[in-house]
Structure formats: C-alpha cells, structure tokens
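Minutes, project check-in
Item: structure for the 263-residue chain
Input as provided by the requester:
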Amino acid sequence: MTICISLLCEDQEVALVGADRMVTDRSLPIEFESSDPKYSQYRSDQLGLVVSAAGPALAPATINHAVEQCINEIGNVREGVELVKDAYISMKQKKFEEEILEQRGIDFDEFYSSGMYNSGRGEQWDKMYSEFELGLDVMISGFDENGAHSYRVSDGSGFNGLVESFSNIGFDAVGSGSNLARDTLTSRYSGDLSVEEGLYVLYAALKNSSQAPGVGNGFDLTVIDEGGPREITETTLTTLQTLFYETEEANAYPESINDEINI
C-alpha cells in the first residue's frame, strides 16, 4: 500500500527515485504518513544506491541493515542487488520457519539437510515453501562506472527468479499505486529525457498514483549520478508542484475549447 518509482534518464546516465511517505502494514495494523523518506541512500567510492520497498513495513529494515554493513565492499550495482537478494532469501526462510516448521520443533536447515522435505508430510511443507511469498517488492536503483541501473527483487508470481532488471525499459513502479504510475510513465517516458524533464515525469507519475488506496500525498525525490544520491531541495519540489498544477490541474478543459469545436 504505497508507491515507489525508479526512472532512468540522460540515456541511462542518471537514475531518479520517488516515493510517497505513507507507511502501511495490515498485519500490525498501522497506516500513517512519515516525516522521513521511505527509501534509504548509500554511497561509496564505487557507486551510489537507493533501496526502496513496497510490502510489510518492518521488512526493509532487515534489507537496509545488510546493505549498510557491506556498502564499502560492493563494487557495482549488480553486486548490491545480489546482496539484497541474499537478505531477501534469508527473510523468506526465517518467515517460513517461524510459521510452519518451528511449531513442530524443526528449523529450516534441519528440514532440508535431513532429507525430511522429500517424504511424507515434508513434501507438503516443501511445496508450501515453493509457493510461499513474502509479499515484498524491493527496488534497487543506482549508479556505477557503467551508468545508471534499475532492478527489482521480488518473489511475486510474475517473475522468473527473484531478480529482474528494468534498465532496458527505463522505469519501474511498485506498490498499490503502481498501475496508475505506469499509466503516466508509459505515455511520457523516453530514455533521453533530461534530469529536469525526468523529475517532472516522475512527479506526475507520483501524483497520478496518489489516487490509489494507501498512497500518501507527500513525496520524496532523489537524483543518483556520479556524485552519488542526493535528495532534491524543497524549492525544487515546490517548483514541480507549481508546474504540475499549472500544466495539469489549473484548467478542467482547454480555454479555447469553444473556439476549437463547433457543434
């Protein structure tokens, strides 16, 4: 119940990331607009990364901790993605262990190392693990010596494996507002957008997605280039808001409509 968007511009030399501030978790349950960005920024001498997520509110902390501990050892964006994937798998195994195995006195390693998964009730549990989903989409956007990149780590049924690259498409969106965001992105995106044009398209996609349930009205936007990640200023955000209103919302219909159409 959120929106996170990644967009590549300047012919894949710059990555942009935007997200709302709504924090939602139906299992707790909680829903509130945070005063802090929902994504985390990392930088080293080799790269800059931004990690954002849609899903259980507490899950990203586990992923962020894994990246924070190893950021100076990551040589490129793809290595960062593999680190996120490993943390994701560990979370999935732990969740399955707690919900299915632990109450039967079994841990995950024992279940598979003993061959228990291959006989009797174990086969059913193994099938349950194969179908078990965290319901968590993690988006990794970054810049390294090869340019800007956008990846997603997810165990959703639409993926072949856990990792998907969106660099060739040029954008990605996750969360309850993703379909509305993609409506804007598919109609306006081009890989040769300037940073300024990309920020406007990103903001327009965020605004469109805010019509979806669980998406907030406050947004954070970050630019990632060879200088690392940096959030846009409040002045720039205010300018985007003003331009969007003047361009998209100020007039319900064209002022010249009566002159242009004669019925």
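Outcome recorded: The first helix runs from residue 59 to 70.
No further action items on this chain.
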